[in-house]
Amino acid sequence: MSRGHSAGAVCSTLPELQGAASLTQGVIHKVFKVFPMASCDYSHVTFVNICDDAFYFQETPEMGEDLTEDGFAKSPAEPEIRWVRSKSNQFLHFHESQFEVKNLDETELKKPDCQFNIQNYNDMETDGGQKGRPIMLYASIGPVKMVVCCKQDGISSEKIGNMG
Q1: Cα distance between residue 113 and residue 93, in whole Å
Q2: Which residues of 101-116 are buried (b: 16+ CB within 10 A; e: fewer)?
Q3: Hey, which residues does 121 pair with through a beta bridge?
Q4: What is the per-residue DSSP string for 73-120?
Q5: Tell me, what's the pLDDT at 62?
Q6: What is the per-residue pLDDT for 164?
Q7: Helix (H, G, I), strand (E, B), or coil: what is residue 3?
Q8: pLDDT attached to residue 103
């Protein structure tokens, strides 16, 4: 069983059968449906479960189903470098691993912690229409890239690896 995105969550053994339930950190999770997918090397995988912010997959034998490639992919265009300004005319600023919104002068706006990279993604299903276009917003502070993570409890940052 392989694990997708992770941020240090530790979970107990997950179910290997469709419809099985598991207890992970006091929360019962149930797998309701098998979703056939393929990894980047086209081996078949099945989505198994989510625990905290980790996605779990299991390699499966071919299921006799044709897999259709979706259009979700990083755009070949270079990321745009922009400021992020609020309706109240304040700017997003990355300082000591925290995002802050504050008034900034012209000199401060030239600093890298006030300039954000916007990486566009292509998605055939949204096509930039009503739902918008998927993007990744991140700050580059020296060699370190910090992605902006929006969650129900607020905005946070996480270090990311090579985006190439």
Answers
A1: 6
A2: eeebeeeeeeeebbbb
A3: 74
A4: EE-SSPPEEE--B-TTS-EEEEETTEEEEE---HHHHTSGGG-EEEEE
A5: 63
A6: 44
A7: strand
A8: 92
Please tell me the predicted confidence (pLDDT) of residue 94. 82
CA distance 137 to 118: 5
Please tell me the predicted confidence (pLDDT) of residue 70: 60
* pTM more than 0.70: no
3-state DSSP of 131-147: CCCCEEEEEEECCEEEE
Structure tokens at 101: 């919104």
Q: Which residue bears the tokens 């078949």?
A: 44
Looking at residue 129, what DSSP letter applies? S
| 122 residue type, one letter | N
- Domain architecture of the chain: domains with CATH: 2-59 (no CATH), 73-160 (2.80.10.50)
Q: Are 116 and 137 a contacting pair, CB within 8 Å?
A: yes
Q: Dihedrals φ, ψ of 142, to 5°?
A: 65, -135
Residues of the chain with pLDDT under 70: 1-47, 52-55, 60-72, 123-132, 161-164
